[in-house]
Amino acid sequence: KQEVTQIPAALSVPEGENLVLNCSFTDSAIYNLQWFRQDPGKGLTSLLLIQSSQREQTSGRLNASLDKSSGRSTLYIAASQPGDSATYLCAVKHGSEKLVFGKGTKLTVNP
Amino acid sequence: NAGVMQNPRHLVRRRGQEARLRCSPMKGHSHVYWYRQLPEEGLKFMVYLQKENIIDESGMPKERFSAEFPKEGPSILRIQQVVRGDSAAYFCASSPPQGAEYFGPGTRLTVT
Lengths: 111, 112
Fold this sequence. Notes:
Chain A is mostly beta strands.
């Protein structure tokens, strides 16, 4: 059974800091991995999608890496801003095309 | 290209009533997924559908819950005889085959 773990559960940093969020999964037989952002009381916004054959993806200040063999992904956020405050969710597409989610990392960027 | 649409955004039902949640996928997307987010918990997969077919319903409770994605119209998640434990946010997502999933804004169901 695929399980996804995100560490840390919560993170508070000052504005401008670079930070890394971690995601690990137990079964390396995945199709892809997605990072999402969820604001309180809102839906999910897709940030980055990494296919299983890829090692990383970049979008603006965000960079996500994937090491399938070790079952790990990281989301790197450069020069963090208060508007980055949200819960970040990692999910892997495994088996019959369903996503398996971690519980998320709640990020607070303090001005 | 409009995103995934869900309605209603908020739904209040008394115990024992029926709840019907609707989801219109993004244009060109043939796959629809329903997920549930309970308070203080992660999102859990419920069901995966393609037009007129349920592909995987392994995450859906065996009783009271059903889902459909008809040839015409939105996907519907139906919860019969709701109980307080059904209170949650229900999210719909759509994707092309093996592509990224795009999520709707969710329907927040409150059972009183």
